[in-house]
Amino acid sequence: MALHPNAIILAKELSKAGWKKANIAGKLGNFQLESGFNPRVNEGGKVGTPQMEGGYGVAQWTGGRQKNLIDFAKQQKMDPGDIHLQAKFLLYELGGPEKKAAAYVREAVSPEESARRFLTDFERAGIPKTKQRQEAARAIYGQLGFLDQPGQAPVAQGGQKPSSNLSVSEILAPIFGVAANAAGVEQKKSVANTLLEGVKEKIAGDILKNALNPFGGFQ
Q1: Hey, where are the domains in the chain?
Q2: Dihedral angle sign, alpha carbons of residues 197, 199, 201, 207
Q3: Are 95 and 21 contacting, i.e. CB atoms less than 8 angstroms apart?
Q4: pTM (2 d.p.)
Q5: What is the pLDDT of residues 153-184, one digit of tens each?
């Protein structure tokens, strides 16, 4: 399946801002689950202008963050449902009110862990669906090769990535050869965290079911 045109726009803007492919894939994997990359969709499926009821846009911004999106659009004199405006707003959040989440995501090596961290610290979704987001991130990661083409991603003189864009494992790799090992450790941690999220969802579901049927037992 071809990458959604809006996903390409977001990927290019994130790459220009210095984000690595794995981190970009993690974000896009979340957006695929949140909105299908439709910048005009409201939570529940209604397409149009922001309704301030539930989420809106590619990231399904909710409540005060949705209001901030609308205010940001007014300042930019753009439509809040414009994908280019939402790309700008995303970068604004990652560099400002959500910079702590951004720092946490930047440390991730794999698309899967990037997706999990973006989910927990940026999206903070009520229904996580962690595994699905991670699977989407991995699939999208394989379609981001265009970011390696000249002019698509920021590159320092001599063809090297700017040091500010490198992860700790990438910086230490030439010295200690730890990049592959770090990725392996992170993948195991990501799998463990995904399993934990699944257990939490199951327990929450059982508690709700038991509350609705107090004379029954946990299924």
Answers
A1: 5-155
A2: negative
A3: no
A4: 0.71
A5: 433 333 334 333 444 444 444 434 444 445 55
Q: Is the dihedral of CA 37, 14, 82, 118 positive or negative?
A: positive
CATH architecture of 5-155: Orthogonal Bundle (1.10)
In the chain, the N- to C-terminal Cα span, in Å, equals 38
Q: Where do the H-state alpha helices sit in the chain?
A: 5-16, 21-35, 64-76, 83-95, 99-106, 111-118, 130-141, 168-176, 179-212
Q: What parts of the chain have a pLDDT lower than 70?
A: 150-219
Which residues are paired to 61 by β-bridges?
56
How many other CB atoms are found less than 10 A from the CB of residue 22?
24
Q: Report residue 144 as tokens.
A: 């981001």
Q: Give the pLDDT of residue 140.
A: 98
Say what the pLDDT of residue 156 is.
Answer: 34
For tokens 């939402």, name the residue: 86
